[in-house]
Amino acid sequence: MVVSSHKPIVLLGFMGSGKSTLGKQLASLTERTFIDLDRFIEITENRTITDIFEKEGESVFRKLESNALREVLRYPNQIIAVGGGTPCHAENLLIIKELSISVYLKISENQLFSRLSNSSVSRPLLKGKSDSEIHSIISGLLLKREPFYGQADIIIESDEITPAMVLAHFQANR
Ligand code: S3P
Known about the structure:
alpha/beta, Rossmann fold, five-stranded parallel sheet, 8 helices, globular, binds shikimate-3-phosphate
């Protein structure tokens, strides 16, 4: 399926909203290249995101993240899944708005909780937290981040977002 614009498509949303899974599916349907910003950082840095958070702290990670974002947005015909915090730090949202078509995958808080309560080991912001701590981290961060996510060009609100739902927006706005 052809998406008429060649601009990169950036998927925004909270951790656990399915950006990477959906991004890969969309990339194969639209014959675009898929890039996961976290993986791009890990490959460039030759270490894991968890390692960067643990050894250097979040602020160093955010700098690397902003630089990586600028780098990947230089190329057309991509689907880019950014991290949950990417659009909420530095000038990242401005750059995303200027250089891409952004899509916010808006998943309910309850659904995020049920997805994230099992994955706390692999996510630095949730690592070692109890279920009730994870609940309050999700609520607090969502409150702060929603105003950023909400500025996306396209917002898709559902607990089961499919590639067809996203593509329908592009077809409708051709
Ligand atoms: C983060 C989300 C993660 C990763 C980092 C910080 C966040 O990406 O960038 O752990 O601040 O929400 P995912 O949203 O892909 O899990």
